[in-house]
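Before relying on records like the one below, remember that each one covers exactly one chain. Contacts with other chains, cofactors or solvent are not represented anywhere in the record.
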Amino acid sequence: MLESLSTMATLVQYVTERLGMITPEKIEARLYELSKEIDAVHEQLSKAELDYHKAKVAFELAIARARIETGSSNQKMRVQDVADNALLECAGQFDGLQISEALVKAARANAQRVRTQVDIARSIGTSVRASLDV
């Protein structure tokens, strides 16, 4: 517990040196800004996930069509060859799917970053209130 208080005091000192005097009003203003940012990040994440699932459905349907077309030829092929040919035919959809997945991961990381900032602001707020009570 004492180590936690020492760490928090160090954090408050660092922030105070960088930003000037920390007041409860500044903390409330920052939390308000973060709440707006959370809304924006949530909207971005929702859109990224929707785009990802659309890309995934498009890819799955395209790859299924390509497997059927490749497998229905008179030429004897191994199962893996059919799958590889289908993937090559659907390279554009696969690329779109991978990009969509990366965007979802980035949006989730950004949401976590904002949550961490909220937690830090709350901790600093608690520490500031405690120091004002002393």
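The chain has one domain: 2-133.
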